[in-house]
Write a structure and sequence with these properties.
Layout: E1 4-7, H1 13-19, H2 28-58, H3 69-78, H4 81-99, E2 106-111, E3 114-122, E4 125-129, H5 138-151, E5 155-160, H6 170-178, E6 183-186, H7 189-198, E7 208-210, H8 215-225, E8 232-233, E9 241-246, H9 252-263, E10 270-275, H10 278-292, H11 298-305, E11 309-312, H12 316-326, E12 330-334, E13 350-353, H13 359-364, E14 390-398, H14 400-416, H15 420-432
Parallel strand pairs: 1-11, 4-5, 4-7, 5-6, 7-8, 9-10, 9-12, 10-11, 12-13
Antiparallel strand pairs: 2-3, 3-14
Helix pairs in contact: 2-7, 2-8, 3-6, 4-5, 4-6, 5-6, 7-8, 9-10, 14-15
């Protein structure tokens, strides 16, 4: 079933590093070249290229990429009332948490007559990518659309892969439209990222692209973000992962369920368990096998488990050190008095404390955002929030007396750097006031 068992104390430094390694990307160089080829094809061919790529990768012919009003109305009629209610609850909770993130303007007088401000403005246009892959993700539509709306981005463009019948997933459409997105295009994969980054006859070019995806999408985002003519991106959000820290009192049933909830995302996902109890490790292995047999996506989860492992550690302190080095997308603390360990957690995308906080609630509707840094990038990136849909600019306004009070320091620093014109811009003004 996978889930290799390892004792941390038995490993040397190189073996420890290997134990925390994510699944290798197969044929990475060839994939990089292929993604560049897709991007260049879209840049050169626009809508025509997207039609060709959609036919090749999604096995469907599409003439009109934009989702029509009729298709949006039809999507809502296809969903049960309970599904729409769940979508609405998720939107409300995500909105509640994200509205609290809106920054307040900063206005400070740093010294008499010197007034400094920091103001926030919404990005002019954003691209929201909602993957489908092996399963549609209406939750991703919510996580992207809600903060974009709260930030006030005037142009919000969403791309999501088409189904083989040529339509977008109804649940994705309902979630997106109820969260305030109207411009939705049936385009997936690296070609969608290229369309958003450079624009086509149908798809507007955006300033910044948001959203998770497979390794092709992640690679395409990285490539277009390094091109001055492309678009900025939110964060490296690739294959999903979870790390669980469990002590002897943890429920093996709960732990196994949490591991499998991420393993079923995709065969390139990775799940890890760090535990102080060999008995818990054995029970989790048995429980995971039992639960795996009941899953509709068991074959996918089984492949992910082959990339995963259980590591026995001496104590929770060691487990946290390992977790901080691994920097998981999701971190679950199934330990006694979980909150007391929170100050020790440095590197994680999102943290789930205690036995009653499954990772699933963060994926859907607790209110936090599930677009999170993966592959160790939680060491330097934060999960998605309203701030990433905003840009900040500073303002300064000085009075004549304020300039006079700061002038000597400006001139001194400018002369230290050999920048005479900088100094002159102050001196000329002081001379004009005499």
């Amino acid at each position: 079933m996978g889930l290799d068992f390892i004792r941390w104390s038995d490993l040397d430094a190189d073996e420890r590093q290997a134990a925390l390694r994510r699944p290798a990307v197969i044929n990475e160089a060839a994939r990089h070249d292929a993604v560049i080829g897709i991007i260049e094809q879209v840049r050169g061919g626009g809508d025509r290229a997207i039609r060709e790529l959609t036919s090749r990768f999604d096995d469907v012919e599409i003439n009109e990429f934009r989702v029509s009003d009729d298709e949006l109305r039809s999507a809502e009629s296809e969903l049960a009332a309970t599904s729409i209610a769940a979508i609405d609850l998720a939107i409300n909770n995500v909105r509640c948490f994200h509205e609290a993130q809106l920054p307040s303007p900063i206005s400070v007088q740093t010294m008499p007559g010197v007034h400094c401000e920091r103001l926030s403005h919404a990005l002019d246009s954003v691209g929201l990518y909602v993957p489908a892959g092996t399963a549609p993700l209406p939750s991703a539509a919510i996580m992207l659309a809600v903060p974009a709306a709260i930030a006030g981005c005037p142009e919000r463009i969403m791309c999501t892969p088409p189904r083989t019948d040529g339509r977008a997933d109804p649940a994705v459409l309902v979630a997106a439209s109820r969260a305030g997105v109207r411009d939705i295009f049936k385009i997936g994969g690296a070609q969608a990222i290229a369309a958003l980054a450079y624009g086509t006859e149908s798809v507007p070019k955006v300033c910044k692209i948001f959203g998770p995806g497979n390794s092709w999408v992640t690679l395409a985002k990285n490539i277009v973000s390094s091109d001055a003519g492309g678009a900025a991106i939110d964060l490296p959000a690739g294959p999903s992962e979870v790390l669980v820290i469990a002590d002897a009192g943890a429920s093996p049933e709960f732990v196994a369920a949490d591991l499998l909830s991420q393993a079923e995302h995709g065969s390139d996902s990775q799940v890890m368990l760090l535990t102080t109890s060999v008995d818990v490790a054995a029970q989790v292995t048995a429980e995971a096998a039992r639960q795996l047999a009941l899953l509709s996506r068991a074959s996918i989860a089984r492949k992910a488990l082959a990339n995963s492992r259980i590591i026995a550690v001496a104590d929770i302190d060691t487990a946290i050190q390992i977790s901080n080095a691994y920097a998981p997308e999701h971190l679950i603390l199934q330990v006694e008095s979980a909150r007391q360990w929170l100050p020790r957690i440095r590197n994680a995308g999102s943290v789930f404390l205690g036995p009653w906080s499954p990772e699933s609630v963060g994926d859907y509707c607790s209110g936090t955002n599930h677009v999170l840094p993966t592959h160790g990038s939680a060491r330097s990136y934060s999960g998605l929030g309203v701030d990433q849909f905003l840009r900040q600019m500073t303002v300064q306004e000085l009075t004549a007396d304020g300039l006079a009070g700061i002038a000597d320091s400006v001139v001194e620093l400018a002369e230290l750097e050999g920048l005479d014109a900088h100094a002159a811009a102050v001196k000329i003004r002081l001379g004009a006031g005499t």
